[in-house]
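Researcher: I'd like a candidate sequence for this fold, 257 residues long. If you have to choose between options at a position, lean toward the conservative one.
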């Protein structure tokens, strides 16, 4: 490995070009361990690849000022990447709390005036045309619609939502005012309604928990990918610094790609 006196062959040069095209300049370790190029570059080191790429006209910095500026740029890039990955998106000023979500839903359903009710897509589309919303707004709307149904403020029929009309209950009561209820039937009906209501609440809670778990799993995968990328960047920088230190120790010149 690392025989600098050995002349580069055409096959090695082509492998180096293909490796840079695939992984990018400076990714010398990744090129060397890539099975596609490993057999052709098995007699070369990271330093060999870097020097050869420089000699082939890729262009590298030659002064200590360039090295310092490049390191500073790398540090700023890593810091900016970490800040963007760790900072949660800011909630738009027009969408601040759950109360506004509910008001937006009622406004959308009332304005759309669909006799069959409005589905999730129509409600979200109406709100997006009038307000600035966060990226995960559709999921939040889905959860809020389910909550309003459980609270009895909305009625859901065939994936469509309507505002519950309180006058319906009043009309039904007046029509049956003179009818004497059967105590046994009334008791059975009450138990049935309570059982159905409890089952609906339990089902909605299970659905909400499943969706929250799915969202948490997705966020965990994104965080793992971010940390893995950061670890890879750190490893590549460490390798580069080790090579530079070795070259300085041997009295050679240090170049940065």
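Model: Candidate sequence:
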């Amino acid at each position: 490995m690392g025989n600098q006196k050995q002349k580069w062959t055409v096959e090695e040069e082509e492998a180096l070009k293909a490796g840079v095209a695939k992984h990018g300049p400076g990714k010398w370790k990744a090129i060397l361990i890539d099975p596609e190029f490993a057999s052709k570059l098995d007699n070369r080191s990271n330093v060999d690849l870097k020097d050869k790429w420089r000699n082939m006209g890729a262009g590298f910095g030659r002064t200590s000022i360039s090295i310092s500026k490049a390191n500073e740029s790398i540090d700023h890039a890593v810091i900016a990447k970490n800040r963007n990955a760790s900072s949660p998106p800011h909630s738009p000023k027009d969408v601040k709390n759950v109360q506004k979500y509910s008001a937006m839903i009622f406004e959308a359903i009332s304005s759309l005036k669909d006799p069959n009710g409005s589905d999730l897509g129509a409600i979200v589309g109406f709100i997006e045309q009038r307000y600035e919303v966060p990226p995960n707004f559709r999921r939040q709307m889905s959860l809020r619609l389910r909550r309003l149904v459980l609270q009895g403020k909305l009625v859901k029929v065939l994936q469509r939502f309507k505002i519950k009309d309180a006058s319906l209950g009043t009309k039904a009561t007046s029509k049956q005012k003179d009818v004497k209820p059967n105590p046994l039937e009334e008791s059975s009906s009450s138990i049935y309604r309570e059982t159905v209501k409890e089952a609906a609440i339990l089902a909605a809670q299970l659905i909400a928990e499943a969706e929250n778990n799915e969202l948490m799993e997705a966020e965990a995968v994104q965080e793992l990918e971010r940390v893995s990328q950061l670890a890879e960047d750190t490893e590549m920088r460490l390798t580069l610094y080790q090579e530079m230190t070795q070259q300085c120790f041997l009295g050679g010149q240090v170049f940065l790609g």
